[in-house]
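Translate sequence into structure tokens.
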Amino acid sequence: MDTGRARLQALAAALLFSTGGAGLKTAAFTAAQLSTLRSGIAAIALLLWLRGRVSLSSGVIGASVAYAATVTLFVASTKLTTAASAIFLQASAPLLIVPLGALLLNERLRARDVPFLAVMAVGMWLSFSGRATASGTAPDQTNGNLLALVCSMTWAVTLLSLRALERQSSTQGSGLSVVVLGNAIAAIAASVLAWPLPAAPAIDWATVLYLGIFQIAVAYWCLTAAVRHLPALEVSLLLLLEPVLNPIWTWLVRGEAPGSAVIAGGAVILGATALRAVVQSGEIAKPVAFPD
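Result follows.
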């Protein structure tokens, strides 16, 4: 495969991931119902694609639990706050990844990481404190932002767990197994609060099917194909398209306009992330992040 096609696949993955905010804002389903249906459909679709070949180990199970918490919290936070705040606050996960990587994985904490963390903290504060105009699509921005912050923590644990799995030859390449099992766990856990399902319009059921099949399953298929042929740095930068487009789709489809402080915070977070990725471009061994 040529690199041009791989770049298109990475961009397609980012594009599909970015539609999650607008899709999750559907009013017909609760957060628990969306989490059950979206993750359940995604797990089945990916399991069929993998023909049931999923690796299991204690490390994979641990990472799957963290990933399940992440996708569940992402749905819940997106239902309560603006899509922009939810995705930007999740993108602040490096604030935990850098110090925890040094503590748990013996990765060296560099002096040059300190300014990066400080800038990320400013961006996170702006995204957390910013408020959009009162809207039916963001009914409880304070609690939604709190859930998004917790989501950034579980996302950091997920990425650190994936990094630890990639360090062991016996569990290398098990990222998709984590995604399948994690979505299955999320669907089962949320199902306790999901019943009975509503008699929703056909367009809302189509939205849920889209979220599970395309926004997660097909997106991961594109991402998996792309990472085989592109450097981790390039894939990471291409995937930054997701948090850029997420608020735009939500504004176009749902009319949700985040406040200027939220947009400023997101710009700071994404800019700092891109700059750090370029500065550390010599570090090839890091696994590619799996967005929601």
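Note: The chain is about 70% helix and 0% strand.
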